[in-house]
Every structure is written in C-alpha cells, then in structure tokens.
Amino acid sequence: MSSIEIQKVTANIGARVSGVDIAKPLDEEQVAAIREALNVHKALVFDEVNLDDASQQAFVRHFGDLTTAHPTVESVDSAPNVLPVDSERGRAANHWHTDVTFVLNPPQASTLRSITIPPYGGETLIASSAAAYRDLPESLRRLADTLWAEHTNDYDYAVPAEELDEEQAAQRAKFTSIKYRTVHPVVRVHPLTGERGLFIGGFAQRIVGLSPAESRKILDLLQAYVTRPENILRHRWSVNQLVLFDNRITQHYAIDNYNGLPRRLHRVTVAGDVPVGIEGKESYSIAGDASHYTSVAE
C-alpha cells in the first residue's frame, strides 16, 4: 500500500505531497497515486526533493515522453529537455498563460524545480481553469462551449519593440523565430477526467470569427474567471522544491516582484495530446512546425 500523503492547500487547487522520494524510481502504485492527486488537485508541491536535472527528467518520465525544452528557446547546456527559467535571461513570465499553447499539442504537464530563490517575492501563481469554468453563469458557459481561439507566439506585446533594450529585443526575436498559429477550443475536455476547463491564457489572441477588438473583450471576460483569487494557488518557493501542475487545465503566472534579484527554476514538461472540445473536435494548426519540440501521436 502506498505511503503517499496528500494535504490539500486550497479549496479549488493545490496539494502538498509527502511520503515519497521522487529522486528514486517510482513503482506503478506511486505513479498512479500521484497521477490521481494531480487529476484532483491540478497542482502538486513536493518539498526537499534533492533533484538535479537528470533526476528531475527521470521523475517526469513516469508520466509520459518528454518534450524538448521549448520550440524556439534554448535549453540548459547538455540537457535538451530542460528549460532554464532564469531572471538573468529575462524569463520572468509575468503574464497568465498555459505553457506553449501556440503548438498543436501543448504539454500535458509541467514541472518547475527551484534552483536559486530570491529572499523575497518570486512566487508562482497557478490557477484552476476547471474551477473557472464551473464559476461561469450558465448563459456565458453556453457561449464559451461554442468558441474556438487562435493561439500564437507572435502578437502585439504590451511593451512595444522600440521600448526594448538590445538584450530584450534579442530575446523576443528568438521567442518568435518560428511563428506559430494554432486554433484550440476555448473549452477543453480533459482526456483523463472529462472535466471541462477554459483553455485560453496569454497566447490566445483571437476568437475565430470575431474581430481582434471583439475577441479581446470576450477573452478578458472569460480570463477574469480564471484569475479569481479563490481559483489561485500562490506558491512561495523554497530551495529544493518541485511543483508539478496539469498544463491541460491550469494557467500560471510568475510574479516579477523581486527587484531583479537572482531567481532560477528549471522546467521539464511532459508531451501532451491534441486538445479536444466538447463536441469531440480536435485543435488544428495554421502555421508553424513543432515536430522538433514534441511529436503528435497518430
């Protein structure tokens, strides 16, 4: 019998996991218990994990094939599946998003491991898009069920290009060096639980069939339900922690509130499936080949 203990953190999202050493190979029962906890709680926190890049990847492989680090951004040296989330490299993702939704099959799950933590700030917010969907009034839920949105890594950023310094401009150019456009259902059905969640976030830029201005109003309205305080886990990092979250039914936000002090996490993600809407229709790609990042299962 598994000795894993799950302690709920908030009503709608998050749990702390103890009673398992994830630096060691896990048996089937342990993997099943963690997967079930992830299905229920959406985000899991593991303390005192004592992982390095190799053992973080080994843990993540219990849940599926790994993606490479990112479709356009370079990985950690000699570790092609590990993305450095590093304040020194301008990686403060201080906008709400679901990882890499601009490709056809975004990661099913993401892990972040703490390497360098500032003395204050630097929290990661993780929101339940399932709770957000449940919060919608019936009339708005019926509308959302019918909508599809185009996600892209190439859009009008809040900071105009002319206001960026040379390093920031180079980072943006790298991020958009391959331009992706993919259409996903606004309401995604989770393949394991059957739950419905709002599949939007920062890379969702336009509702199919609507103008950019109309799209922005609807996306902002729906996004407001995702980011209700009741639907958010605010994780304050400690050294040697790992957070595992279900990328299919959450969004996250890295708060830039640490005055540029060193902050570094390492991200490893599990390859995902093609999203499906409530009528069984799959997402489809408009532009951009991401086969070097993650393959699409036939």
Describe the global form: globular
Low-confidence stretches: none
The largest pleated sheet is described as: 7 strands, mixed
Strands of the biggest beta sheet: in what spatial order?
1-2-3-13-5-15-4
N-to-C order of helices and strands: EEHEHEEEHHEHEEEEHEEEEE
Strand content: 15-25%
Q: Which class of secondary structure composition applies to the elements?
A: alpha+beta
- Terminus-to-terminus distance: 36 Å
What is the count of helical runs?
A: 6
The residue fraction in helices comes out at: 10-25%
Q: How much is the average pLDDT?
A: 92
Radius of gyration: 18 Å
Number of strands: 16
Describe this structure as you would to a colleague.
- The protein is α+β, with helices and mostly antiparallel strands.
- 21% of the residues lie in helices and 25% in strands.
- It contains six helices and 16 strands.
- The chain has a seven-stranded mixed beta sheet, covered by helices on one side. A four-stranded antiparallel beta sheet has the order 11-7-8-16. Strands 12-6-14 form a three-stranded antiparallel beta sheet.
- α3 (129-135) crosses α6.
- It is globular and about 50 Å long.
- The protein starts with a strand and ends in an 11-residue tail after the last strand.
- The mean pLDDT is 92.
